[in-house]
Amino acid sequence: MQLTVPLENGLMPDKYAKYAPAAYRTQDMPTTNFPITITAIPAGAQSLSISLIDYDAIPVGGFPWIHWLAANVPVGNVPEDLRATDLAVSGTNSTWHFVQKCQQPANPAINQAYIGPMPPDKTHNYTLTVFALDTQLALQDGFFLNELRTKSQGHVLDMAIVELPARA
């Protein structure tokens, strides 16, 4: 399986990250995902799952930052603004941690959505992983990464990883 994501000058396009225009934002957060072209999906794949994680966030905040989790994505290319299609199940990203810590009400439009890269210190590499699965996973909106990993065990037909740099 191979993944292709559009880049501009070797970086994630601004419209999907820190410098996204207003139309690509929710409550001033970039919430419109980039499209993904996927080739060589294995026969028998029934769904895809997606994660986008910033491991370069560890020196800044102490843990990897989860930007996007999606499951039960239809097999094929992933469109821009997947959440607007209502075709997949959305997982919880790392903004949830701060909502809980500050005792604020959760907002699924932010906490269970793609949150574009906003590196605070320098260009970060974001790890995009797509799994081809032999089933639909028993997950509901708001699932966590550990649930995705557990439910995926024994169902992964193939996976692909690509590093996507985004500017500070």
TrEMBL record:
Pfam families the record matches: PBP
CDD domains (alphabetical): PEBP_bact_arch (cd00865)
Keyword flag Ribonucleoprotein: no
InterPro entries: PEBP, PEBP-like_sf, YbhB_YbcL/LppC-like
GO function term, MF aspect, one: protein kinase inhibitor activity
Keywords, sorted A to Z: Protein kinase inhibitor
PANTHER family: PEBP (PHOSPHATIDYLETHANOLAMINE-BINDING PROTEIN) FAMILY PROTEIN (PTHR30289:SF1), UNCHARACTERIZED PROTEIN YBCL-RELATED (PTHR30289)
Protein known as: YbhB/YbcL family Raf kinase inhibitor-like protein
Organism for this UniProt entry: Leuconostoc holzapfelii
